[in-house]
Structures are given as structure tokens and as C-alpha cells.
């Protein structure tokens, strides 16, 4: 703050105000503090989920049938693709088009990942992109790692999320019959695909114990998918390079990309959200892009959108941190 000029012969403006007027100005200058109510249901559920997952990881993975471990990995990839190739790149951003069989496959995987239905997931994600790192961002990373990773699910949404989010267009989503049906019957479908089938298959087909199947293929697998997705919201908004735009928080993070099936190239994605690859380098640590390209090869995917390299380079040169050219 600049020192007060006592030689001007003028009194500071604040000295001319009454105490009441000064207090009003101070209140208006301070940002409104919103005390968000804890959602106890989510807090209890997510706590129990992580406790059960830790038990499954350290207490049961070495005791269960190796088929069960393979099954858990298959479900992780299927659920992950349901989020990355489905909710994110197909429905939220419309970066490519998919035929009915693939949309159904992705919707089932998305349901098994239990991260809200496609409609709600895409609505929140479009709000996140439009109001990134503001109070209208559902998982505002400027509030720190914990809030952007999981804390945002433990409290009621900030009023700005609902107020400003109401203006984000999501009218296209429910026109897809798959999205419409999933939205309408989400709860029973979620229980079926996230917990019942992952537990039933090992028990029925290779006589795994229901206990092992539930904690390993059910809870542990689900918890790992959740945290992989959350890493995109937290770590990939805090730590990493900014080769395309050094003025925004999202970063390029290979570690996140390896766990989240290619979603860690986040600086690129926030600069060029319409590119189906969500990264400049295609298949590099990007299982989702590989999957989409394979689906295109068998005719299930079409109209893939990309950003021309010359545009990417111009943007990187203009606003990036220089790491793109190192």
C-alpha cells in the first residue's frame, strides 16, 4: 500500500466518512464468505468406501483368485473408458460421434463407475469448463488440493455453481435415448453394474468367495476409478507444465494421464476442449484415444475433431510457458 500523502493539504477520504459508512465500505470490499453445509451422507459413505478399499487392497488381494484380479482390472478399464471416452469426450464435449452399440457399451461402463449419471456428469463438467477456478466451478482447484480432489463432494454446492450453472446449455444430452433411460433409472442400474455384477461374476464363474469379490472387484476397483478421476480435478489443476497457456491452472501431468487413461494432458484440453484426443500427441499415455481410434477403425466412431498443428503451435508460442519448444 502506498504511504499516505500528508503534504497535499487534503484529508484522506476514509477520514471524512462516519464510522458506519466506513464499516459498510469494508463489508462491501470483502468477498462474501459462504459456509457450505457438510453432506454427511457423502462423508460417511466415502469414508467407509476408502476403509473397505484399503482392507480389500492389503487384506484380500493376495488371497483372492487371480481371475478376480483380472476381472477387477477389466472393470477398471471399462468404467474408466465410460468416463473418459463416454461422459467426457463423447457426451460432454461432443468431440466425436459414436454409433448405438458403442454408446451403450460406454454408458454401461459409465454406470459401473458410479460418478452420477451421464446427464449430471456432463452438466457439472460443462459448468467446470465455463467457470474454471471460480466459485461457480464445482471442484474449484483454487480452493486447494483436498477440496478439488474430494472435498467438493463433502459439502453442498456453492450457490454460484447452481446460479451460473443454470445458464449452461445441456439440452442436447437427454435427446440421446441411452442418456435419457440411464438418467431415469440410474439408481437400480448403478447398483447392478457397480456392485452386484462385479461381485456375482467371480462367485458364479470361478467360485470366488462373495467377500473377496465384493471388496476387491467391487469396492477397491470402484475406489480406484474414483480417485483416478479426482486426480484430474486436483493434481492436473495444480502441478505440472503449461505449454499451451501459462495463464490458466490446468497442467500437463503424465502421472495423472497414466492412471486416468489419457486425461492428464489437461493444459491442452482446457485450451482446445473440442479435440477428441485431449492431448497434442495422440496415443502417448492416452489409452482413451487409442480406444476411440480402434472403434473408428471398426466403424463405431466417426467425425473425430482435432485441432490443426499450426494452430496449436501458434497458441503455445503466444501464451505457453515455453516448455512445448524445449
Automatic annotation (TrEMBL):
Task: Give UniProt keywords alphabetically.
Answer: Fatty acid biosynthesis, Fatty acid metabolism, Iron, Lipid biosynthesis, Lipid metabolism, Membrane, Oxidoreductase, Transmembrane, Transmembrane helix
Quick one: a GO cellular component term? endoplasmic reticulum membrane
Q: Where are the transmembrane segments?
A: 43-62, 68-91, 185-205, 211-232
Q: How does it sit in the membrane?
A: Multi-pass membrane protein
Entry keyword annotation includes DNA repair: no
Q: A Gene Ontology MF term for this entry?
A: iron ion binding
Outline the extent of the Fatty acid desaturase domain: 66-274
- Keyword field contains Transmembrane helix: yes
Q: What is known of its domains?
A: The histidine box domains are involved in binding the catalytic metal ions.
Name of the protein: Acyl-CoA desaturase
Q: State the organism named in the record.
A: Holothuria leucospilota
